[in-house]
Design a protein that fits this description.
The complex is a heterodimer of chains A (about 650) and B (about 500). Helix content of chain A is about 70%, strand content about 5%. By secondary structure, chain A is mostly helical. Chain A has two domains: about 450 residues, no CATH class; about 70 residues. Classes of the chains: A mainly alpha (about 650), B mainly alpha (about 500).
Chain lengths: ~650, ~500
């Protein structure tokens, strides 16, 4: 049928990858009442591990196939078909989805294990693992689907789990509110995704990737319909991946348990938008306007969110804005046509950001227990209450420091290679403005991350009471941290650029996925040579070091400075601390008016007043007429006969005429 | 056999008349057995249904009023099959859900079974007089169910329901008579009410079609209900007893959409095309308006009622897309709505049984107290808001696809309803289930009983089944819908 179909290999293992977490979900879900806490966590983790093992097998099977034929497929059944529309439940594993399933099941497994320790003793722990497994199932469906509609199933499914897990501690209504906000804002994005799919189908006659891309290749660059549908899809991506203007749900999503933040709101789900754009790379390449929008939104989000992250006090909020910002980098990469670099950063970010969140979780865990122990009601997530924790949380500190160095872009660590790849591709393809924005945001990243490390781990412990102190988390939590720390270091080594003598195997691995896009545009490929690349690298490193230095100066040397600066630029500080008041603005111009107009005008005035009033009024008139008509009932047969006769004549006339 | 399916409930009703009125348990069990047997009779109907043909199946014909050219003519095609099955499926669940009825148990079950026969008759009739008789017959037991077993304001709601429906029915009757007088065979001069015969005849001139479409259409639009004829619905729903609401939403509203599909559209095709813009715009207003008004309701049952206006707007939009995806999507969405909204009314009713209130503000934090109930409620709500993997999504997607093909602008507006559905349902869930239990009366509410689970679990299974494997449902309707569309003007 399709051109690619010639190079695909059937693989009957694929269904197992999402099936294991689904089984975990069903077992824990159906036995929820009787299930023991410890068993639930083990079942859920085993399900993830099994899924990871199958993913590895699939990966190696893919590796053994010839370079241009690395596509495994499995079709299960027809989901639904009506008229000329048909969509299957079928999977496709190519180099891109292979990376995704490894990240999702691998990092997912580590976070499941960590959760056993973190959630220990929580009364809702069975529900927690049930929903976490369900999330993994949907996430795997999302990345394994061979068509847009099945991807959409995963897409909305992960949104559901995100909603449930953000509001996991629902007894605090604020958590439930954050969950609902996430779902609704994502739905706004999904509205775009949905319309995009409709346009894809009416344009290409299918929602299956292979068919869509093959037919799209016959369209000219800049065709308006492809521009329209890629922009619509991107609306979906801004929702799921928390980009301007739909990013506002992600910081609130930190209300969920911290491992959830690590898995869903950092490593996997929020990268779905990037995956979708990369998956649709040919469509985007055919629509330069859309690419420019993607790059622009990505760059704007990267710097915007980073600036908010500079002043937040809540440790998870800093990481949340950092995630929004890093996702911006990934879109920036896609927008300049460097899809491979975007996916590379997606992978390394999954390692170091998951680690940062789990580390923060370990800190919060320790703080929570400590504060509880000393009878304090202080906020366990507020960095103002922390300080000096490295003495008592050495493993957490060490691993978090590695992740911080990685995200800051220190040479040798994973984040350095992926971020640098993005900078180089942006620069070499002539996108100087987004490149500069990216560099500035990188400086900010280094600053706010080291601010976090200094405020948390260095200096005086600001909640000290008597001779008590927080304790390091158990091994079930720290071992995943250590594994992720190793990955945060070496995870980038698969993509060492040629300029540094590496082979950039990562780019080569993904090359077949993006090959058709490269046919369309010959941008990206490096002009300027090795020397230029190396100097840009040095520049980026210097900026990162400058950010770190500034953080050191502010938070280690002159600790009076932050307050002074904040006082000196009060307006700017407030603007940043209150996140540019975007939530308040949305509330005032969208949420409130909609609610009030519906309540007062549509319901009370229009529905109950006008429509119902008209009906009731009519009923009153009828009743009145009835009262009067009663007088016509005279009991005189001749009167009845007269009326009857007239009526018959009228009706007959009506039919004759 | 089809006659058995239609009239078995009536037989059961007759049997109940003979029972002593104090033996409530016996009455309930007879009613339950009747509906279960009826459902069992539907199994051969499903298995024996041939999806490859659009012609009438399980057809039965008997002389009835030969002088008027009216006969007892019934049958099933791919358009009515699932509506019949839906009615039969909801029947036993409703009887089971009526265990709380203590007042006039005998009359209640008599009315309910009588209503079942009326509804199934409407879906099976292939003669205009027969159809009209079933249509009107249905009205009486529904009126009684609301008026006698309803809540505080039941009389107002029942009368409103009755008047609204009667107004539409009368115009329809005039139109049916007009059709009859026009149906004279040119050679024999014989007239007929037979639907198949009328299908074969040339269509009336466009001017007449417009009037006839309007007359039939008004009756159906009130039943659907389409904006702005919907205001009887919230009152009727809120006041009706639980099973009444379930049947009202699950089946009675489908009479309207079914009426369009069976009568208005095929009989007056030119008028149908001319009416597409008006109906589509009203449908879209219904989708958005219903959702917005739903969002601000302080009363759970009213919220669900208004959401029906929104969902049925989707159905109408799909039917009037006049293409395969739109019509099949609309048809599937009728079933989906019957299942999901039926389940929501059951759930709201179960809460009412415990607390005697529908006010959202009387609840809060129930997830802690009633975890199983909460889980079921969330699954049903997700199906109602169109989450992929559950039933509602497939219908909505097909409707939007069909609409997009015929008019992308309509689809864009309609799709915004998808966002709003999430808002009103999740906001209700948040206020009812989340937060802390801040009212003492709610702190010890019992979770679902065995009987309640028996009602809800079949519904949940169907919700998942239809979402995961909708093809089973769609394949039975495909041929009938295709032939229906072939007869529409291009």
């Amino acid at each position: 049928m399709s051109h690619e179909a010639l190079h695909v290999t059937p693989c009957s293992l694929l269904w197992l990858i999402p099936a294991f977490p689904l089984m975990g979900f069903l077992i824990n879900g159906l036995l929820r009442r009787k299930q023991k806490e410890a068993v639930a966590g083990i079942i859920a983790s085993l399900a993830m591990f099994a899924s990871f093992l199958v993913s590895l097998m699939v990966f190696f099977r893919l590796l053994n196939l010839p370079h241009d034929g690395r596509v495994l497929i499995q079709t299960l059944y027809t989901w639904f078909g009506v008229g000329d529309f048909l969509v299957n439940v079928s999977f496709q594993i190519d180099p891109l989805s292979a990376i995704m399933i490894l990240v999702v099941s691998g990092v997912g497994f580590l976070i499941h294990v960590y959760s056993i320790g973190y959630m220990k003793g929580d009364p809702g722990v069975v529900r927690y693992f049930t929903q976490l497994n369900l999330f993994a199932f949907f996430m795997l469906m999302l990345v394994m689907a061979d068509n847009y509609l099945l991807m959409f199933l995963g897409w909305e499914g992960v949104g559901l789990c995100s909603y449930l897990l953000i509001g996991f501690w629902y007894e605090d209504l604020n958590n439930a509110r954050a969950g609902m906000k996430a779902f609704v804002v994502n739905r706004i994005g999904d509205f775009g995704f949905l319309l995009g799919m409709l346009l894809i189908f009416t344009t290409f006659g299918s929602l299956q990737y292979s068919v869509v891309f093959e037919r799209a290749a016959e369209f000219p660059v800049g065709s308006s319909v492809i521009t329209a549908l890629t922009l619509l899809l991107f609306v979906g991506a801004t929702g799921k991946s928390a980009q301007i203007p739909l990013y506002t749900w992600l910081p609130d999503a930190m209300a969920g348990p911290t491992p959830v933040s690590a898995l869903i709101h950092a490593a996997t789900m929020v990268t779905a938008g990037v995956y979708m754009v990369a998956r649709s790379n040919l469509l985007y390449t055919l629509a330069p306007v859309s690419l420019a929008v993607v790059a622009g939104i990505g760059a704007a989000t990267a710097i915007f969110a980073a600036s908010i992250g500079l002043v937040q006090k809540d440790i998870k909020k800093v990481l949340a804005y950092s995630t929004v910002s890093q996702l911006g980098y990934m879109f920036l990469a896609c927008g300049v046509g460097a899809f491979g670099a975007g996916i590379f950063h997606l992978m390394t970010h999954a390692f170091f950001k998951a680690l940062l969140f789990l580390g923060a979780g370990s800190v919060i865990h320790a703080m929570h227990h400590y504060l509880h122990h000393v009878g304090s009601h202080a906020n366990a997530q507020d960095m103002d209450n922390m300080g000096g924790l490295k003495a008592w949380l050495p493993r957490t500190f060490g691993t978090m420091l590695i992740a911080t160095l990685a995200i800051a872009g220190i040479p040798g660590l994973s984040g350095f290679f992926s971020k640098d790849e993005i900078f180089w591709k942006a620069f070499s393809s002539g996108h100087y403005v987004v490149w500069v924005i990216g560099l500035i945001a990188a400086g900010m990243t280094a600053f706010y991350m080291f601010r976090l490390v200094y405020l948390t781990f260095y200096g005086e412990f600001r909640s000290a009471k008597k001779d008590q102190h927080p304790h390091e988390s158990p091994a079930v939590m720290t071992v995943p941290l250590i594994i992720l720390a190793v990955l945060s270091i070496i995870g980038g080594w698969v993509g060492i650029p040629h300029a540094l003598g590496g082979g950039n195997q990562f780019e080569a691995w993904l090359e077949p996925v993006f090959a058709s896009s490269l046919h369309v545009s010959e941008m990206v490929h490096g002009e300027g040579g090795v020397g230029l690349e190396l100097s840009l690298m040095a520049l980026a490193t210097l900026i990162a070091l400058a950010g770190i230095g500034l953080a050191y100066w502010f938070y280690r040397k002159r600790t009076d400075l932050p307050d002074k600066v904040a006082a000196g630029a009060r307006a700017l500080y407030n603007l940043l601390f209150h996140k540019y008041y975007v939530d308040e603005i949305y509330n005032a111009i969208v949420v409130k008016p909609l609610r009030e107009v519906s309540r007062v005008f549509l319901w009370r005035v229009f529905d109950a007043g006008i429509v119902d009033g008209a009906v009731n009024g009519m009923a009153k008139v009828m009743a009145q007429v009835g009262q009067n008509a009663r007088r016509a009932q005279t009991g005189q047969v001749s009167n009845y006969a007269l009326v009857f006769g007239v009526a018959v004549i009228v009706i007959l006339l009506a039919f004759v005429l | 056999m089809l006659s058995w399916i239609i009239f078995l409930p009536l037989l059961g009703a007759g049997l109940i008349l003979l029972l002593p009125k104090d033996n409530k348990a016996l009455i309930r069990n007879v009613a339950l057995a009747t509906t279960l047997l009826d459902l069992a009779l539907c199994i051969p109907l499903y298995l024996g249904f041939d999806p490859t043909t659009a012609s009438l199946q399980f057809e039965e014909s008997a002389t009835w009023i030969p002088t008027l050219g009216s006969s007892y003519h019934i049958g099933v095609d791919g358009i009515s099959l699932w509506l019949l099955l839906l009615t039969a499926f909801l029947g036993p669940l409703c009887i089971l859900g009526s265990r709380g009825i203590e007042k006039r148990v005998k009359e209640y079950h008599f009315s309910f079974l009588f209503l079942m026969t009326g509804m199934m008759g409407v879906f099976s009739a292939w003669d205009l007089v027969l159809f009209y008789v079933f249509w009107e017959v249905m009205l009486v037991p529904m009126y009684l169910l609301i008026g006698i077993w309803g809540h505080e304001n039941r009389i107002y709601a029942a009368v409103k329901f009755f008047i609204y429906t009667m107004v539409g029915s009368l115009l329809m009757l005039v139109a049916i008579l007009w059709m009859y007088f026009q149906s004279a065979d040119p050679t024999t001069g014989l007239r007929t009410f037979d639907l198949l015969a009328i299908y074969q005849m040339p269509r009336p001139p466009i001017q007449a079609q417009m009037w006839l479409f309007a007359a039939f259409g008004l009756a159906f639009a009130i039943k659907v209900p389409m904006f702005p004829f919907h205001t009887w619905l919230p009152d009727a729903h809120v006041e009706a007893p639980t099973a009444g609401s379930v049947i009202l939403a699950g089946v009675l509203l489908k009479m309207g959409t079914y009426g369009f599909l069976r009568y208005c559209m095929p009989l007056f095709p030119a008028a149908t095309v001319a009416f597409v813009p008006l109906i589509s715009v009203l449908a879209i207003i219904g989708i958005i308006y219903g959702a917005l008004v739903s969002m601000v309701q302080p009363n759970m049952k009213k919220l669900v009622a208004y959401s029906s206006v929104s969902h049925l707007g989707f159905v109408m939009l799909g039917l009037f897309a006049l293409n395969q995806q739109g019509v099949q999507g609309g048809l599937l969405q009728m079933i989906n709505h019957g299942i999901s909204t039926g389940a929501l009314f059951f759930l709201v009713g179960m809460l009412y049984d415990r607390r005697h209130t529908f006010n959202i503000s009387d609840f809060g934090g129930l997830a802690k107290v009633m975890p199983v109930y909460t889980t079921v409620f969330i699954i049903v709500a997700l199906s109602s808001l169109g989450l992929p993997g559950l039933n509602g999504f497939v219908g909505e997607f097909l409707i939007l696809l069909g609409t997009f093909k015929s008019n992308p602008t309509y689809a864009v507006f309609a799709a915004s309803g998808v966002i709003l559905a999430a808002v009103y349902l999740l906001w209700m869930i948040q206020r009812v289930f989340y937060g802390s239990v801040d009212k003492e009366v709610n702190s010890a509410l019992p979770d679902l009983t065995l009987r309640e689970r028996t009602i809800l679990f079949p519904l949940v299974i169907v919700i998942v089944w239809m979402g995961v494997y909708p093809q089973m449902f769609l394949s039975k309707m495909e041929t009938s819908v295709r032939v229906f569309l072939e007869n529409m003007p291009k």
